Amino acid sequence: MKLRIIEDGFELPFEASVENGPTLAGTYRPAVPAEVKAYRQRIAAAKAPEESVRVQAEFLAAHVLSWDAEGKAGPVPPTADALTRIPEAYADAIEAHVTGYYFSPGAVATEKKIAVAARLRLLDPEWDRSCESCRAWLYRDDDETPAEFRGTVLTRANKPVPRPPYVPPPCFKCPKVPREMRDERQSAGEEVTPADAADPDDLARGVVEHYLECRAVGAFPRDPVVRRHARLIAPYYDAARDQPLRQLIALVAAAPGRR
After folding, report:
1. Rounded Cα gap, residues 5 and 7, in angstroms
2. Given its phi and psi angles, is residue 158 left (phi above 0), alpha (psi -120 to 50 degrees) or beta?
3. Nearest of 76, 74, 72, 73 to residue 64 by alpha carbon
4. For residue 177, how many other CB atoms are within 10 A of its CB?
5. At CB < 8 A and 24+ separation, what contacts does 137-142 make?
6. SS3 160
7. What digits encode the pLDDT tens for the residues 131-169?
8. Which sequence spans correspond to the domains of the chain?
9. What is the pTM of this model?
């Protein structure tokens, strides 16, 4: 597909969604660079949260041509007032389309990979391997394996052990496969396969590392895409931060003499 310049009558579809939430769909006119720069200057100059929300809503209202949002009385046009009343995640997703001129399917796929990359980096590092590698080699994935060796390739005589053809990879417990998909497959008696996994790529991993760098220095760029990525990654960061406390509570609860 060739890049098309932004001109009068140029219209693209968008989809905005959050995990376990409805999808908002519509059409928009991409913003030209001068409009994007002027908008970002207005956002930077905003002195109160309400002003930032209003600036964003007015900018989006000038570019969103149609959408399928509804109110209690039925369909609602994409006016600035209506755009101040949708969840922030949806507004930011629309903004990313308008300012970045990209298509929804790729964006959705990328977000899934970012979420998986965050989980592997922060909560399940022992599963941070490619599906291709897991199909090729046997890994030490059983609960009896000491924590420091879990997720490493099994070796014999200092050589990696190939996965036999009759031993399928452990997709049934791999966090790269969404839990609901694993449950659905298993309840139907179907096998979970690598095709069900969202294998993160270098781009997704880079997004997670950028988030961690921003957290480390306590400063995030004022960019809608960065904010949207941060909302994807933050739950995993918070869970990893709280993990030692939960483990300590579990150890105390399991101590002899406690009921």
Report:
1. 6
2. left
3. 76
4. 21
5. 137/161, 137/162, 137/163, 138/162, 138/163, 138/167, 139/170, 141/170, 141/173
6. strand
7. 999 999 999 988 788 888 888 999 999 999 999 999 999
8. 12-102, 131-196
9. 0.58
Tokens of 250: 């579990």
DSSP states along 57-80 = HHHHHTTEEEE--EETTEE----H
Q: Can you read off the two tokens belonging to residue 30?
A: 């991409």
Q: Other CB atoms closer than 10 Å to residue 14's CB: what's the count? A: 22
Could you give the CA distance from residue 152 to residue 137 in angstroms, rounded to a whole number?
10
Do the Cβ atoms of 137 and 153 come closer than 8 Å? yes
Residues in the chain: 259
Q: Can you read off the two tokens belonging to residue 230?
A: 């941060």
The closest alpha carbon to 95, from 63, 66, 123, belongs to: 63
Neighbours of 137 (CB within 10 A): 17
The pLDDT tens digits of the residues spanning 75-112 come to 999 999 999 999 988 898 898 889 876 544 444 447 78
Q: Which residue reads 């052990």 in tokens?
A: 161
Separation between Cα atoms, residue 138 and residue 97, nearest integer Å: 42
